[in-house]
Amino acid sequence: MATITAPARPARLTSGRLPRWTPWALLGAALVASFVVFGVVAAGDDLADVNVAGALVVGMIVYMALIFVVSSIVESRRKAVDRLMTALVSTAFILALLPLVSLLWTVVANGVQRFDAEFFTYSMRNVVGDGGGIVHAIWGTVLVTLMAAVIAVPIGLMTSIYLVEYGRGKLARAITFLVDVMTGIPSIVAGLFIYSVFALLVRPGISMGFMGSLALAVLMIPVVVRGSEELLRIVPNELREASYALGVPKWLTIMKVVLPTSIAGITTSIMLAIARVIGETAPLLLTAGYTLSLNTNLFDGQMMTLPVFAYNQYMNQGTNPDAAIARAWAAALTLILIVMLLNLLARLIAKVFAPKISGR
């Protein structure tokens, strides 16, 4: 006989299970109530001064209390605790996201007003007020960072390969310890180190783009080493053993099996290292220096970079402070866009060079 199944009834407050819309309704009510309270408190002042972040935090706290109480009454204490923990994790995510969203909004809102053709085609040569651009700072940032990557990536990658594939005993432990120490080195120390070396070997007071690249490379190497080391360690040993069983030497196994398997993660770690150093200001002030003109020679003369440009425009505002501040915000936005483009490029490279899996 055919079995007739009764249609499922929607959840009700009396059925022991909350409807799907209940958490959203409680969240909306809590946020509305929180913003109303904060609006009433700020009514004596300007309503634009309402503490949005505070209202969101208080609203989420009220929502957690409401969802726990309602779920305890309608469902069970176990389900209420589950909903409370879900709300707590969501609140933590929102709190972590708020500074990022606020930062991006502030930079975009203040920096987009100078995004014009002049800003990206002119330098600051002979400019003391309005106008000017950052073409010299963009070239300086790209060249200095590229040279730093050319220096740091091979050293860091080969160090991680040694630690994973060859390193044993006291030497490997000493290298790991030194890499961990270098990870916490302040950026100004790296700049002072490179400046001191060149002052002793060449002449005091020297500044050029290559010195900035060396300072950034010192900061990049430990990041590349630690990231690449962890990714090489998670490559299954079965892949290495299968290659050895076919008579492939170890160095070729690393080149053809281990590195291609982890290339996506290694590329990501390299991009993280670049993002770590591309916004550094202190070491570049000491090493690469500062100039108002375009200089594309890393080994001759000072070079301007975007972080130093933004810092200088804020500290030395010239005859028109508003124009200088606008240039500083636009330089910061340009730096963020460059980092974003580098990350997109890294994902593309990882997708192209990652090992292909048949059937997908």
From TrEMBL:
It comes from the Bacteria. This is Phosphate transport system permease protein PstA. It holds the Pfam family BPD_transp_1. Residues 138-346 form the ABC transmembrane type-1 domain. The chain crosses the membrane at residues 21-44, 50-74, 86-108, 137-163, 175-200, 206-225, 257-278, 328-350. CDD domains: TM_PBP2. The keyword Cell membrane applies. Keywords: Cell membrane, Membrane, Phosphate transport, Transmembrane, Transmembrane helix, Transport.
